[in-house]
């Protein structure tokens, strides 16, 4: 079975596949976008979303499976994609990762896209029961719940965590996604950490936040973080993007990773922490708490930050030192089940 996955190169999609590629499911490689060098693994913007690509390549695939990458598509463009698939008799599978797009401050943009994709899909998948319930409530469609597969490579899952005396709490601001409310969370954490012996607060942020020419430029946020670092309540690390190994080293170096989100749905970051044995404090928005064991605190777009619950989550992590960690054996078996479920869905649609 030949699957046009959008995208094929994303770690989620790669790890939904049979580990030995022995199940008869073949996923097409991502076509190289215009302007991407021949050596690049960049998949965005996804070429497969173009109806003209479908018309030109419909004999190359059996099922079209959409995951990510349609942020820039209008509802009309997505409708044209659906029409092209219908014209050539190609089933559409859609995995609903995001019910609220973390990159878009206006929820109406993603809602309009979902209003096209979810009713049109021949088969729906999502990651948590809560997301499935919301899909049922909003669109009266059923979605199969399949767990998020491992993010970290299986060979690294068994590597022991480092031993250290200090309790290290981390917030990684990345390039300040629209769903982050960073400074309020960091200030509340600084207050909580001050009362805990041998506790450290580390804040990481990408260098482009300080670049006047970058879309992520946010001088006020960076100035606020530097002021807090100057007062000694946190350690600030400004750096370029981590590669995978650097990111895994960073997460393994934390005892607690705090997600400073005000909206969203699911998290690959949380899954990586579960792979590496780093506890997570996740906000109450979205369905993060249904993905994997974690601590939670009150934080939503509507109600803002509940500092009391965030402080309580930090104290609980400090007191209990939770080690919720996936084993390589469990993740391998889980990946096999997820791959089999995808294969069965494709076969059913083609039958």
Automatic annotation (TrEMBL):
Residues 11-140 form the Glycosyltransferase subfamily 4-like N-terminal domain. Gene3D superfamilies: Glycogen Phosphorylase B. InterPro entries: Glyco_trans_4-like_N (IPR028098). GO terms for molecular function: glycosyltransferase activity. Keywords: Glycosyltransferase, Transferase. Pfam families: Glyco_transf_4. It comes from the Bacteria. The keyword Glycosyltransferase applies. The keyword Thylakoid does not apply. SUPFAM superfamilies: UDP-Glycosyltransferase/glycogen phosphorylase. This is Glycosyltransferase subfamily 4-like N-terminal domain-containing protein. The lineage of its organism: Bacteria, Bacillati, Actinomycetota, Actinomycetes, Kitasatosporales.
